[in-house]
Specification:
Elements: H1 10-20, E1 25-32, E2 38-46, E3 52-60, H2 69-84, E4 92-96, E5 106-110, H3 122-137, E6 151-152, H4 154-162, H5 173-185, E7 195-197, E8 206-209, E9 212-216, E10 223-225, H6 228-242, H7 244-258, H8 264-288, H9 297-316, E11 326-327, E12 333-334
Parallel strand pairs: 6-10
Antiparallel strand pairs: 1-2, 2-3, 3-5, 4-5, 7-10, 8-9, 11-12
Helix pairs in contact: 3-7, 5-8, 5-9, 6-7, 6-8, 6-9, 8-9
């Protein structure tokens, strides 16, 4: 069980504000759920002129692998880069990478909205997710200085594939079949130019206001790499939440911005195998955000279906397509 966000040191928070935003005082704080790598709090501030503002304090979990100061400094620089480029991210306000105030790295951003896991308008939700991801992938080493970011290239993917399933699912027949398909696919997948990638892009790392996407959050794992990693990760988690048709509709919307995504079956398998390994951990975060699949049976079965569909495409070259939709009596879209 992961540690809880047990409390926020108000004196430390005020000291951070005194250093970064003099004249600002804390009105109230509230814990935010869903984070696996960090502890987050919503903070309401009173500014020097008497107005109020909401911000988010994000503290890296000290026991995790992302607790090093350079990771938080890199995340803050990432937010600065993307915010200046017009990508929907929270406005970065200040950073305490060395942990002077809380004893652990922390950064402060503007409040941008709340996660939305079960939207009323699914097609709009999927389209917004796709549009934001396409904007991220338009940031490349040719357009911006990304030299401060780690890279994930062919060698890293090869190592992941050749390592096979993790011990937790080493005897799972589907996992073994997926692993074998990935090995066969090595060297056959067309390489594409690297872009900025979130590397953990999924519905839990996006926030919304009034049903529309306002910001992508949690940039701890950002890298330069193959954008199909993000597409595959988001697709499998959409499938967990809303089924295969929704994952395919997301892809169709993404391709409207980017053009066809080649050899996606490989990345669906690559990230889907990870989801098959850690779907229970994924559910912990989604449950905090309001997911209603309390037993996890639906999420696991949908993850397996996602992988089975990708295996079919791996052998036959079929492309995923969104099924037709028909309006229901209440104006919602009915999945095909």
């Amino acid at each position: 069980m992961r540690p809880r966000n047990v409390g926020l040191n108000r004196l430390a928070l005020q000291a951070l504000l005194d250093a970064a935003r003099p004249g600002t005082s804390v009105v109230r704080t509230r814990k935010l759920g869903g984070g696996l790598s960090a502890l987050t709090d919503l903070v309401e501030l009173r500014l020097a002129d008497g107005t109020r503002e909401r911000v988010v304090l994000r503290k890296q979990r000290p026991e995790g692998r992302y607790g090093a100061p350079e990771v938080t400094q890199r995340e803050f620089r990432t937010l600065v880069t993307l915010h200046s480029a017009g990508v929907p991210v929270p406005e970065p306000l200040c950073v305490d990478a060395e942990g002077r105030f809380f004893g652990q790295p922390a950064l402060l951003t503007a409040y941008a909205g709340r996660p939305l896991i079960e939207p009323r308008q699914l097609s709009t939700w999927l389209s917004d997710l796709a549009t934001a991801l396409a904007a991220i992938h338009r940031i490349t080493p040719a357009t911006h200085d990304l030299s401060y970011l780690p890279s994930e290239g062919t060698d890293q993917i090869r190592v992941a594939v050749e390592s096979g399933p993790r011990p937790e699912i080493a005897s799972d027949e589907l996992a073994l079949e997926v692993s074998a398909a990935l090995r066969r696919g090595l060297g056959k997948v067309a390489a594409i130019g690297p872009t900025f990638i979130h590397r953990d892009y999924h519905p839990g790392n996006v926030v919304w206001r009034r049903g529309r996407l306002t910001a992508v959050v949690d940039w701890t794992k950002a890298q330069v790499g193959d954008p199909r990693i993000d597409v595959g990760q988001c697709r499998v988690e959409i499938a967990m939440l809303h089924g295969q048709d929704a994952a395919d509709e997301f892809l169709a919307a993404y391709e409207e911005d980017t053009g066809p995504v080649l050899d996606l079956w490989f990345f669906d398998l690559l990230r889907g195998l990870l989801a098959l390994t850690f779907w229970k951990e994924y559910l912990v975060g989604y449950a905090e955000l309001g997911m209603t699949d309390s037993t996890g049976k639906r999420a696991e079965s949908r993850t397996r279906e996602f992988l089975e569909r990708a295996l079919e495409r791996a052998s036959g070259g079929e492309r995923p397509t969104a099924k037709s939709q028909e309006p229901t009596a209440n104006g919602q879209q009915r999945r095909g």
